[in-house]
Please model this.
Amino acid sequence: MIHDPSSIGRRLGAMLYEGLVVFAILLATFLFPQVILSGFGINLGGKLLWLHVFVVLGIYFIWCWLHGGQTLPMKTWKLRLVDQGGGAPRPLQAVLRYMAAWPSICLFGAGLFWALFDREGLFLHDRIAGTRIDREATSAPLDPPDHHDRGQKKQKRRS
Model:
């Protein structure tokens, strides 16, 4: 694993993809049951609906982080959630990260902008939970492909 604070683009790309996965999860576990319940005349209040969303997404994220350190988008982008020592996150860290991510993202992304000023490039919810997202060693950095090719061509010409 490589701790790469410059990988904010990779992390934001994974978050964008994560939005699609979260939409599908909420469609299956939230919208369909609500449609069925409303067919029977059962309407849940707004606070109970938000609690349902919070619990469903919490189960998804925390379970994924504790079982391999990756959600599907994190696997695709070759990212892994680890603790500050590079090991698997502890259950309390995963819960704390999930709970801190809500205000971090919902307050106009303030916790994401935090990474621009953090000395290690961590999001605020990672700083709070004592976790970080590392790039797998087998993945390439997000530099333009021609940038790497030019550097290799220049080295070959000099040889």
Q: What stands out?
A: The longest strand covers residues 79-83. Helices lie at 8-39, 46-66, 72-76, 91-106, 110-117, 124-129, 145-158.
